[in-house]
């Protein structure tokens, strides 16, 4: 590739040289604008995809929380109370045991049973970790 100083000698007049320089500058500017336009189009497209993904994620989360609330409503009252004390109030097993007047091991066993009942009342594709995450999310929102 020739440099400008080497190419300059191939022109007959200074005006031809000047026209060539201006054409090169114009072409570079057009290339830069096209590249900028392509980047903007890509960014806008990416933002639309992100918004669609956020909306889909929010819809799935909303439907799953609705399912979780329905499963909680189906729990026996003493297990709903355990859920409230443990997840809403954030009490430790020993504190729950003192509040309910039962042994701490009883609280642990009831928590296991509570999660099993929730799992049974939830769709098969939702695992125990998801239920725990949803409970945490639900309580942060409250």
Automatic annotation (TrEMBL):
<keyword id="KW-0805">Transcription regulation</keyword>
<feature type="domain" description="RNA polymerase sigma factor 70 region 4 type 2">
    <location>
        <begin position="67"/>
        <end position="111"/>
    </location>
</feature>
<dbReference type="GO" id="GO:0016987">
    <property type="term" value="F:sigma factor activity"/>
</dbReference>
<dbReference type="GO" id="GO:0003677">
    <property type="term" value="F:DNA binding"/>
</dbReference>
<dbReference type="InterPro" id="IPR036388">
    <property type="entry name" value="WH-like_DNA-bd_sf"/>
</dbReference>
<dbReference type="InterPro" id="IPR013249">
    <property type="entry name" value="RNA_pol_sigma70_r4_t2"/>
</dbReference>
<dbReference type="InterPro" id="IPR014284">
    <property type="entry name" value="RNA_pol_sigma-70_dom"/>
</dbReference>
<keyword id="KW-0804">Transcription</keyword>
<protein>
    <submittedName>
        <fullName>RNA polymerase sigma factor</fullName>
    </submittedName>
</protein>
<dbReference type="Pfam" id="PF08281">
    <property type="entry name" value="Sigma70_r4_2"/>
</dbReference>
<dbReference type="GO" id="GO:0006352">
    <property type="term" value="P:DNA-templated transcription initiation"/>
</dbReference>
<keyword id="KW-0731">Sigma factor</keyword>
<dbReference type="InterPro" id="IPR013324">
    <property type="entry name" value="RNA_pol_sigma_r3/r4-like"/>
</dbReference>
<dbReference type="InterPro" id="IPR039425">
    <property type="entry name" value="RNA_pol_sigma-70-like"/>
</dbReference>
